[in-house]
Specification:
With about 850 residues, the chain is mainly beta. Among the domains are: about 90 residues, 2-Layer Sandwich (Phosphorylase Kinase, domain 1), CATH 3.30.200.20; about 270 residues, Neuraminidase (6 Propeller). The protein is about 10% helix and about 40% strand. The protein contains nine helices and 57 strands. Strands 12, 13, 14, 34, 35, 36, 56 and 57 form an eight-stranded mixed β-sheet that branches. The protein has a seven-stranded antiparallel β-sheet with strand order 19-20-21-22-23-24-25, with no helix packed on it. Strands 1-2-3-4-6-5 form a six-stranded antiparallel β-sheet, with helices on one face. Strand 16 and strand 17 form a beta hairpin. The protein is globular, with a radius of gyration of 28 Å.
């Protein structure tokens, strides 16, 4: 149907027509409820009676709505009026890539930028099991500010049944006859042309054709008819890019060629690999200029060097290391291939072998070894343990039977062991990190004692401590200093690089970074190398000199974590695909709903009626100061309230308390409706770990640390005035426990430095251990009657949540929480039940790692 201006379509008011395509007409409309303009796509009336088209249209909407990514068009709503279905999406200002290409090829820099964004969007879709199958310049939109958006998921094909767990329509896919050709001639893959099944690699072929056209201004495959074009796709190779554009680097042409391989097995195998290749290629801020070479034939036996440009190989080079020569430019080699999480990795003293601890393919944590000449990893016969350090004599420092904390940090009993196997010899409890001294007789450790994180060297001698947490201690080659990462508040990984000498004099070597994870000394001992980011989790490799000068070494694409540096300067690091997602369950829905938004969604609270959740984004999508959102649990789009890490919703639902990650940190109240944000005055804390509203709405319970002291909790009047301590140092509300305050406002549930849950009276006085709990139990929220608390234990999968009677200690299982795919699952936490137990939300954390060696980084 054709709509006129001011026509009402559901709650939306049509403003004007934008355009039309094969799948519908598009209009500009106004959403009076939120006061914003949107785009509405309406299925033509002639299609309404076609069940296949209707199904495909609905599939487009649901698939796109499942993809919350800055490079994919955001879908806000779906509806039907007068028999015509419609989709409501964000309104974009700009032009399609097809319109941009009408004037000729794009500059190489611009083409690579657009290609990176497309690849990242595809990676997000493929991670959800969604294949586009109709990528072409018409379906790529470039906004006026340079943001690329992928449009039209009308021809999606789901490859995983869990892509949208609560919707069977998506998992069934669209039925089509065998041999049916879907897609657009000129951009289809050879397998699509032949009517064969198309997976994510088919999208990568289409992507390659688009990138070819961006660089050359000409289509990669073009005939006088569709049949001739499809024949060219199946049998012919496009002309060399340098024939039409001499500015195209050979390495970039190689990326295009590998996307356009006829055999899917010889293409890039994932959009993330493509994005990695392009990001490496576009890194002009350092000497690093590399490209990922997918080596999938046989045993990945060879990585080909590119003349003039170093080659970043997805594959481990076997045979000689280029006859022992050192490349003048950085080269990267992949050293692991299985799917899972790596917790720690080190070179052996001779630099020829790597030992690492990992959980592969959903299995238990094990220690593995891999040699450069043999890419297969072998298990080491030792108990479940995290690798911390290897001495010059080859002895291991391990955390045995660890508890996994945030950021893949292991806490447990420190032990010594040898690789031949046997029982490790236990040394010290409650250790997070350790590093061997050069003599192999003593260890520097990060010891968790009384709620404080202490750096000890040797064991028992405290050099420095903090109420936040310390990580990654490394003793300098000359043995005179220990470098480490200093984080002001747990579990946030923002922090600085610091060193301490043997007399306990501490010196900061860097400013504070938003994310900081991984550290090692350079072989010469004149610099501390580390991985950190200014925003989100895209950490780069940097070096800090002892006089505090920091330089950028390489923008390693993705989330990098420095593990070790060999004596000859080779860098061992992991690339981590880290994400947090949100699952919600409400009455009337038979299945849980995934309400993840960006890359680091942390649910912080749920309204008592289960209709709203409060969450924040602390990753790349959240920005440097993070972002706080509220969202209806029916799946409606979230509303961004402002900057900050979210903490809790007020009892009347009108306000949210959040923390601005500045130094010192600030508390801010954000209105959920009309109103202006305002700062909470009167705090003496430098960092916050949690905050919550008392039932009277006049006070906050805040937990954090004063300067130089361990974290503990206070009552803070909202009207201003002095704070009053409620718990002793080292005792705080678990950061995921949004409502640790009892319904009558008289008690709080907290945990001490050993993880033992307590109940403390708000009026002051000694706390009492909660009956029926043991260290490691986490109290999350009180029930409505104030008689029970919901408790659970981290890193237990599936995760059992108990309703525990605080008087008798009797506990009963309330819910058992899990996710369909356990691979790389780091935790289920931030569990938010409603007080009546009828609804809940929780966050699941996933980390998938691969191990790399970088050679030639300087």
């Amino acid at each position: 149907m054709t709509l006129r201006s001011e026509t009402r379509l559901g709650p939306y008011e049509i403003v004007s027509a934008i355009g039309a395509g094969g799948m519908g007409e598009v209009y500009r409309a106004r959403d009076p409820r939120l006061g914003r303009d949107v785009a509405i796509k309406v299925l033509p009336a002639s299609f309404s009676g076609d069940p296949s088209r209707l199904q495909r249209f609905e599939q487009e909407a649901r698939a796109a709505a499942a993809l919350n990514h800055p490079n994919i068009l955001a879908v806000h709503d779906i509806g039907t009026q007068d028999g015509s279905p419609y989709i409501v999406s964000e309104l974009l200002d700009g032009a399609t890539l097809r319109e941009r290409l009408r004037t000729g090829p794009l500059p190489v820099r611009k083409a690579v930028d657009y290609a990176q964004q497309i690849a990242r969007g595809l990676a997000a879709a493929h991670d959800k099991g969604i294949v586009h199958r109709d990528l072409k310049p018409e379906n790529i939109f470039v906004t006026n500010d340079g943001r690329v958006k992928i449009l039209d998921f009308g021809l999606v094909k789901l490859t995983h049944s869990e892509a949208v767990a609560d919707d069977r329509t998506l998992t069934q896919g669209v039925a089509s006859d065998p041999g049916t050709v879907l897609g657009t001639a000129g951009y289809m893959s050879p397998e699509q042309v032949r009517g064969k099944p198309a997976d994510a690699r088919s999208d990568l072929f289409s992507f390659g054709a688009i990138l070819y056209e961006m660089l050359s201004g000409k289509r990669a495959f073009h005939g006088e008819s569709a049949a001739e074009t499809m024949s060219a796709i199946a049998k012919e190779e496009p002309p060399e890019l340098t024939e039409s554009n001499r500015n195209v680097p050979p390495a970039l042409e190689r990326v295009v060629r590998h996307c356009l391989e006829k055999n899917p097995a010889e293409r890039f195998q994932s959009a993330r690999d493509v994005a990695f290749a392009l990001e490496s290629l576009s890194d002009t801020s350092s000497a690093t200029k590399a490209v990922v070479e997918p080596v999938h034939r046989r045993a990945r036996v060879l990585a080909l060097a590119v003349a003039g440009v170093s080659l970043l190989a997805i594959g481990f080079i076997t045979g000689s290391r280029l006859a022992g020569s050192r490349s003048s430019e950085p080269v990267f080699y992949r050293a692991s291939y299985r799917r899972g999480t790596i917790y720690g990795a080190r070179f052996t003293p001779d630099g020829k072998t790597i030992l690492y601890s990992a959980e592969w393919d959903g299995g238990p944590m094990q220690l593995f070894s891999v040699q450069e000449q043999h890419p297969e990893s072998g298990a080491i016969p030792l108990p479940r343990s995290c690798l911390l350090s290897i001495s010059a004599q080859g002895e291991l420092a391990l955390v045995v039977n660890p508890t996994i904390l945030a950021h893949q940090e292991c806490r447990g009993t420190l032990a010594r062991a040898v690789t031949a196997g046997g029982a490790p010899r236990e040394i010290l409890e409650d250790v997070d990190w350790a590093d061997w001294a050069k003599d192999g007789n003593s260890l520097a450790v990060i010891h968790h004692v009384g709620g404080k994180s202490r750096l000890e060297f040797p064991v028992g001698r405290v050099l420095c401590e903090t109420g936040g947490y310390l990580s990654h201690p490394r003793i300098s080659p000359d043995g005179k200093r220990i470098a480490f990462l200093d984080h002001p508040v747990w579990p946030d990984d923002r922090g600085t690089v610091a060193v301490v000498d043997l007399a306990g004099k501490k010196t900061a070597l860097s400013r504070e970074y938003v994310s900081e994870d991984g550290l090692a000394w350079s072989p010469a001992g004149n610099e501390v190398w580390f991985t950190a980011s200014d925003s989100g989790n895209a950490r780069s490799l940097r070096a800090a000199s002892l006089d505090g000068k920091v330089r950028l070494i390489s923008r390693i694409p993705g989330t990098a974590r420095l593990q070790d540096i060999s004596p000859d300067g080779r860098v061992l690091f992991t690339r981590d695909e880290q994400s947090n997602g949100i699952v919600v369950s409400t009455p009337g829905n038979a299945q849980e709903r995934d309400l993840s938004w960006m890359d680091w969604s942390l649910v912080k609270d749920i309204s008592p009626d289960g209709k709203w959740i409060l969450f924040d984004e602390q990753g790349d999508g959240g920005g440097e100061l993070y972002s706080t959102y509220i969202r209806r649990t029916d799946g409606s789009p979230p509303v961004r309230l402002g900057d900050g890490a979210a903490y809790a919703i007020s009892g009347d639902g009108k306000w949210v308390v959040a923390g601005l990650p500045k130094s010192p940190q600030q508390l801010i109240l954000l209105p959920t409706g009309a109103g202006e944000p305002h700062l909470v005055e009167g705090s003496g804390l430098v960092e916050y770990s949690s905050a919550d509203f008392f039932p009277d709405g006049k006070r906050l319970l805040v937990c954090g640390n004063e300067l130089g002291r361990a974290q503990h909790c206070f009552v803070q009047p909202l009207a201003g005035g002095p704070m009053r301590a409620v718990t002793p140092e080292g005792v705080l509300v678990w950061p995921g426990g949004a409502h640790a305050i009892s319904p009558d406002g008289n008690s709080i549930a907290a945990v001490d430095g050993q993880g033992q849950p307590y109940i403390y009276p708000v009026s002051g006085g000694e706390g009492k251990p909660i009956p029926g709990t043991t260290p490691g139990d986490i109290p999350e929220r009180w029930t409505a009657d104030g008689h029970s608390i919901f408790v659970f234990r981290r890193r237990e999968f599936p995760t059992k949540v108990y309703r525990l009677d605080v008087a008798s200690g009797k506990r009963e299982v309330w819910k058992t929480l899990t996710v369909p795919d356990p691979t790389g699952l780091a935790s289920i936490g931030w569990i938010q039940p409603t007080p009546d137990g009828n609804s809940y939300a929780f966050t699941y954390s996933r980390s998938l790692s691969q191990l790399y060696i970088g050679d030639g980084l300087r």
